[in-house]
Amino acid sequence: MIVSRTHDGLTETFDGGLGSASWRCLGRRGMLFSECESFDYVRLAPGTALDGRGRGDLEEAWFVVSGRGEYSEAGEAPLRVREGQLVIVPHGCGGKWRAAEDSPLELLLMALMPAAVSRRLPTRTPAE
After folding, report:
1. Sheet containing strand 59-66, strands side by side
2. Backbone φ, ψ for residue 82 (5° rounding)
3. Are the CB atoms for 56 and 25 separated by under 8 Å?
4. Which of 24, 25, 64, 127 could form a disulfide with 11 if both were Cys (CB 3.0 to 4.6 A apart)?
């Protein structure tokens, strides 16, 4: 796994008109030797929204490190989240995260290939 404190292309900061957010890659597919697509740290400034739609090809586990906010999928009532909670997003879904107006929201994301894809792949192991 690669972890770095310097700016080396692994951190993305953006402002989509809905507030600022930063996304930091902590590990990627080939580095993890697993069916994990990525392991990321996400920080949303207060009131910021992050649209995760279009990522429905993955299964995701989102852990709320700190702060408060909500997760919502189209047509569903928003799920209010706070520090210490885990949100599982199954394959084929994708929603929107929003930090509370008075609180940044810090998340850890583990994105995994769906079982239907990973079953077809050869076993991957680190080289000796």
Report:
1. 11-15, 20-28, 36-44, 105-112, 59-66, 86-89
2. -150, 170
3. no
4. 24
The pTM for the full model equals: 0.70
Closest by CA position to 98, among listed 11, 16, 10, 9: 16
29 neighbors 58 (Cβ within 8 angstroms): no
Position 76, amino acid = E
Tens digit of each residue's pLDDT (9 = 90 or more) over 44-67? 999 999 887 656 678 889 999 999
Nearest to 25 by CA among 37, 17, 16: 37
Q: Got the DSSP string for 52-88?
A: -TT-TTSEEEEEEEE-EEEEE-TTSPPEEEETT-EEE
Antiparallel, parallel or unpaired: β 49-51 and 79-82: unpaired
Task: Tell whether the model's pLDDT for residue 73 goes beyond 90.
Answer: no
Q: H or E segment at 105?
A: strand 105-112
Instruction: Indicate the DSSP class of residue 96.
Output: E
